[in-house]
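Q: Could you predict the 3D structure of aldehyde oxygenase (deformylating)?
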Amino acid sequence: MVAPLSSWPWDNLGSCKYLLYGPLMAKGVHDAWEKGTLMNSWFLHLLILFALRGLIHQLWFTYSNMLFLTRRRRVVNDGVDFKQIDEEWDWDNFLILQALIGAMAFNSAPSLKDLPLLDLKGCLIALLLHVALSEPVFYWVHRCFHKGYLFTNYHSLHHSSPVPQPYTAGHATPLEHLVQVVAMGTPMLGAFLMGHGSLGLVYCHTFIFDYLRCMGYSNVEVFPFELFDSYPLLRYLIYTPTYHSLHHKEKDSNFCLFMPIFDAIGRTLNENSWELQREIRSGKNDQVPDFVFLAHVVDVISSIHVAFVFRSISAKPFVFKLILLPLWPLAFMAMLIMWLRSKTFLVTFYNLRGRLHQTWAVPRYGFQYFLPFARDGINDQIELAILRADKMGVKVLSLAALNKNEALNGGGTLFVSKHPDLKVRVVHGNTLTAAVILNEIPNNVKEVFITGATSKLGRAIALYLCRKKIRVLMLTLSTERFLKIQREAPAESQQYLVQVTKYQAAQNCKTWIVGKWLSPREQHLAPPGTHFHQFVVPPMIGFRRDCTYGNLAAMRLPKDVQGLGICEYTMERGVVHACHAGGVVHFLEGWSHHEVGAIDVDRIDVVWKAALKHGLTPV
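A: Sure. Here are the predicted structure tokens for aldehyde oxygenase (deformylating):
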């Protein structure tokens, strides 16, 4: 039997739970109609509080997950995985509960016309009541929640989140949040009963309470240890993210709400709190990644699909949503700032077999890669990222699609030639990309048609297939480039490579390998039943209902990957682009060569078998 107040009554409503705010909105409109002004309605202010409190949690989440700013001060180095994200999905349930409780309380509250905007005496009374009543009561009740029945049926849910996040503060049972209502509401209620209540007190006390809660769960140490060295008493008056994290690691210590003095009085203060805080703040807790994937942004809207914006969006494959449209101006401004700063930033990380893998991103957007005057600037940013990785001790750096464009830097050859003493291995990952595409082609196929046939991938795929005695129609206008590739094939296989100059030549071929974007008209030249494999970035849009379209080459990471909580662009959870996976395999195998420039066709099967050996699987 489920324990009472251990689950939310609206658990099964999904997003429809926000309709519970409907009566508050209706009451607010009714009050405005009667009183002639909307601002004199307590119910309107409850709705404003809900929105602003959610914003406080969002802003703290955004800051704490801006790893390019906070990586060296993270308390727990592990990433937040999909399991924790899903469990905390409805973190804002407590805001609904408190809004409904507030509606009942304010229904009999004094009229806003009779209240001052701010009463400093009321603020002082609330502060004293918080210290003298809310803090010790919360401390005592919190300790009770760590015993037997209460922990098993209520508090264990909160401790199931391994990595503290601002949203984790709301991940608890209704009973626990009712206790928090008492802790937060008692000081305000006391001030109102003593005749010193104000609208400003409601807003300020609520915001400060939420701010401190989010700070404690932020997983980023924000206090310099020098502050506590200079003012030792201060460490007992305000907790730190490090202090709170120890409560989640060692559950029988650091129970306070915000003030460690009550842990000191109750003899539950973890003696390692200050030393660990010093260690984390000084950057000693930082870890050097073994593998880095150097990504890039595709467009302004997709730039919102990062771990530090909306977790509910980045934890799912990217699709355009109307809710993102109002954020376009903010994303555009962020793009301009990144251009001005021109620094590679850290997006996310995960652990695989105990080794740290990170994703960095260059501050360049997809369209910029096709601007001739931007080429040198982009290469400079990629080069700086490689040199930074080399200095840090990174073992392998893999380049995302446009960062290794042949016209841009020869598939990474530019950097390896310029810096022959690099210790970090630079990898374009295209060998595995080619392997993924080739292993998607059915064994009974006798003829294929390739666009982008003389590109790095097109060349490798064509040479591999002709060795298998599969006829390859290579679309290219350059006879010189075609002949150069044909001469690379064994003499007995050269006959299987055929140059074509028009799409009409493939009207009877049902296997198209697309390396160049196809317009609707060009797609309609394919016969019904055609399957379009593709390695074009961005991926082509499917217009034919009588044909099938493959996704960009990708592989699923091994099952033992940890801390992965973001989808790579449009990929499913746990799935990464093949070039990303190619870098992972390069690292796991310990290969010492750079994988840049032209693809070594002889290594396609070697890389494919290595990927399968390490637990990567085709999608």
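Q: Anything worth pointing out?
A: Residues 375 and 383 are 12 Å apart (CA to CA).
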